[in-house]
Amino acid sequence: AAAEEEEDDDIDLFGSDDEEEDQEAAKVREERLRQYAEKKAKKPGLVAKSSILLDVKPWDDETDMAKMEECVRSIQLDGLVWGASKLVPVGYGIKKLQIQCVVEDEKVGTDILEEEITKFEDYV
């Protein structure tokens, strides 16, 4: 009976061999974290965009509004997309051009757009 009790004492029910398994689990976990970090680094970040509604006023009442819109839309910048436009009456038969655009905030600003549009001195 004493020999059976000694054999039972030698059996570790909770497994003290966990140290080796814990090291392996830690290595696997570290490898997965490293792979996740690499994957996340490759993923592009969010791009901040703004929708802008511009009012472009003509030089005078005889300005060709179609030509003015064509000039404004001819501005091509990286991160700039032109949208819908319409002519809005101002008064005394004069209309202004209202035009929509979407810009990437990092690449294009309102100052740049204003400078480019005002270069068309014959129309704006």
Description:
InterPro entries: eEF-1beta-like_sf, EF-1_beta_acid_region_euk, EF1B_bsu/dsu, EF1B_bsu/dsu_GNE, Transl_elong_EF1B/ribsomal_bS6, Transl_elong_EF1B_B/D_CS. GO terms for molecular function: guanyl-nucleotide exchange factor activity; translation elongation factor activity. It comes from Brachypteracias leptosomus. Residues 49-124 form the Translation elongation factor EF1B beta/delta subunit guanine nucleotide exchange domain. There is one protein chain. Helix content is 42%, strand content 25%. With 124 residues, the protein is of the alpha+beta class. The chain has a domain at 49-119: Ribosomal protein S6/Translation elongation factor EF1B (Alpha-Beta Plaits), CATH 3.30.70.60. The protein has a three-stranded antiparallel sheet, with helices on one face. The longest helix is centred in the first third of the chain and has 25 residues, at 18-42.
Outline of the structure:
The chain is of the alpha+beta class and 124 residues long.
* Range of helix content: 40-55%
Intertermini distance: 107 Å
* Continuous helix count: 4
- Major sheet: order of its strands? 1-3-2
For the sheet with most strands, the description reads: 3 strands, antiparallel
Identify the CATH architecture of the domain at 49-119. 2-Layer Sandwich
* CATH domain fold name of the domain at 49-119: Alpha-Beta Plaits
Helix/strand/pairing category: alpha+beta
Low-confidence stretches: none
GO molecular function: guanyl-nucleotide exchange factor activity; translation elongation factor activity
Domain Elongation factor 1 beta central acidic region eukaryote: 13-40
Region (Disordered): 1-27
Pfam families: EF-1_beta_acid, EF1_GNE
